[in-house]
Specification:
The protein folds into 2 domains: 31 residues; 70 residues, no CATH class. It contains 3 helices and 3 strands, in the order αβββαα. The N and C termini lie far apart (111 Å). By secondary structure, the chain is an alpha+beta fold.
Length: 120
């Protein structure tokens, strides 16, 4: 006579592997979410600063301590005049920063200069 016995002893390693794969998947998802959050977070702040030039004022725009724009003359004018005041340079530079942050063209027009009341 033959007897059949069902053996339901679970292998320790198979339980450990299932647990390991579950924790690995959770860790991978957390890492992915963290990566997405950090890549979407705006770490690149733009800063405007006035600079003194020979005939007046200009401005620089820096990103992570690198100068990306150095403007020593008033844009949109055909002749090369510097800004008369530090405040005028900062107002214009701030408008350029605002446009860059909005992903629009940073070009300054005569209309922009009149709106900002820039003296030239």
């Amino acid at each position: 006579m033959m007897m059949t016995i069902k053996n339901k002893i679970k292998n320790f390693w198979s339980i450990d592997q299932k647990f390991f794969s579950l924790t690995t998947a959770i860790k991978a998802q957390l890492l992915f979410v963290t990566f997405i959050f950090l890549s979407c977070h705006d770490n690149n702040t733009l800063k405007v600063a006035a600079i003194k030039v020979d005939n007046g004022w200009g401005y620089t725009i820096k990103q992570d301590d690198k100068i990306i724009i150095k403007q020593t003359v008033i844009p949109a004018l055909t002749n090369n005049h510097s800004f008369k005041s530090e405040d005028d340079a900062l107002k214009t530079g701030s408008l350029v920063v605002q446009r860059l942050q909005q992903n629009s063209s940073p070009t300054i027009t005569m209309s922009d200069l009149k709106t900002l009341a820039i003296k030239f």
